[in-house]
Structure prediction request, 444 residues.
Amino acid sequence: MHAFAYARPATLAEALTLLEKHGPDARLLAGGTDLIVGLRQGAIRPAILIDLKRVAELRHVIDEVDGRIAISATAVMAEIENDDRVGRHFPALVEAAHVVGSVQIRNRATLAGNICNGSPAADTAPPLLVYGAVVVVAGLKGTRRVPIDDFIVGSHQVALERGELVTAIELPLPDRRLGAAYLRLTRRHGTDLASITLCCAVDEAGTTRLAYGSVGPRALLFIDESGVLADPGAPAEAKEAILERVFAEARPSPRSIRASPEYRRAMLRVLGARALRSAIERLAGG
Amino acid sequence: MVDTLPIAVTVNGRRRTLEVAVHHTLLDVLRDQLGLTGTKECCVVGECGACTVLVDGSAVNSCLVLAVEADGAEVTTVEGLATDGRLSPLQNAFLEKGAAQCGFCIPGQLMAAQALLAQNPHPTLTDVHEGLAGNLCRCAGYQQITEAVMAAAEAAVR
Prediction:
């Protein structure tokens, strides 16, 4: 690994000042499970790493405030998996957090890092889209809240300006009863990057939210308010017709080593139908 | 110029104060500065688990942790499992079940299993598979490794 400087700010103001000063020469370090791989491969060569783990404002890992759950930038996948409130309200996010890497990775990898790294295969992107997450972005000029659908821009691109960092990802507590499921397609059981990531939620008013990733530059969200997808009694052909339109936006890479575009498109339909069935069953089961 | 920082870590119960290069990983420092070569370097991208150690009780890939990030932490390596020259029950179970073939992955397998059993003393087979999913064995001794972890868990119950 090439040499770099290392800073361990104690406050958010210190972290932001360092980030402003060093601009693109700085990289933020939270879990490091993507960053250190990039450093070792020489894919990134920052002059300084700014470690966020001792920033006082970021140490309240998971908090419930004003009708939402705030997951701080330092919260790791294992903490999300084990949090009762996240499990109760956002079970599909727990399902996604649970399949990221291995135990060792989940003890280090953060939710905010999973999103900021911007991988099209990020497991947590579809559930965050489905649950309507909001990304809290801080800069020296203040804080702004960006809907996750606007925050994720493209492959390894997110809506952060120079001098900004993510302090938390917030999940609004659902005001309706939901049934939700997360599914992924991998080449093998165990540690693997997903060839498809997919999350589906249906609510008691008949709205279906479906998001899928790893089949294009970014994860995509679709909302069906016709009630057809969420209706357990609707004919299969009617559902298939809607899902066909939803999946028409997929742009799987022909150069991927993980799966061919044809296979991914075929499996999207299978995973979509399966996740929808699970979501409906879970809503009915309470 | 290489930046260095002083860190204080407790490694296998012994407090150490060290000056480390900020771009060196915990794995580098354990092996090269502390001479604890039980922890293995292998894939260095967090996929094989050979470098697994415990940091404050949690299993992590030490190839993906900078040594400076471990400042103030308690680190346990495979050298910390035996006490007074006697192998731990988990280590003995690995020997009894023939879980070690070439042996290279075994320190990481042991540390992942140690973390699993500390958190879940009565794991199912599925729990063991999941708990050790981040540890590859190129000899493919998975069955014996799993049996050893299950045997160590059962022995602890008796």
About this structure: The longest helix of chain A spans residues 261-285. Chain A is about 35% helix and 25% strand.
